[in-house]
Amino acid sequence: MRSTSWDDYERIFVDALIELRGNGIEHGIFGDIDLEEHREWVWKVCKAADVNPVHPLWKEDRASLLNELLRDGFEATIIAAKDKVLGQDVLGQRLTPELVDKFRESGIDPSGEAGEYHTVVTGGPLFSTPLSLAHKEVVHRDGYWFLDVACL
Fold first, then answer.
1. 4: which DSSP letter?
2. pTM of the entire structure?
3. Which tens digits make up the pLDDT trace of 5-30?
4. If I label 117, which of 20, 81, 110, 149 is the partner at 20 to 30 A Cα–Cα?
5. Alpha carbons within 13 A on the beta-carbon side of 11
6. What are the DSSP E strand ranges found in the chain?
């Protein structure tokens, strides 16, 4: 895990990819669904690190992917929310079918693909032990609410 700021995020990300490449990692798996700008950024940073980007979800149906994630038992916690779309009250909430329905009813893309919210996956069938998060401070920056978290 690495600490970063808004200003040095890309540099830190590339440095982490370079380190992984040095350890024999040749491919990076990314969860972008259909936003070309996101995919282009991933390709740019991967090229800088000589890592091959893979987008297994690319052009899949957003709702189907989200339903599958939840049905298969993955757990995700909301750690960022676009302030013109969602309030800071969603920070720290677990993504559930009920919350997804609430987003859908409010006209918010339930998958958050356009940046409505961001999550960290904390548990699921691939985890030997779920992650426990300590919720720290809430920060507002560049139109987003962020929940600072730490693994316990």
1. -
2. 0.82
3. 878 999 999 999 999 999 999 999 99
4. 20
5. 6
6. 27-29, 52-54, 75-82, 117-123, 133-141, 144-151
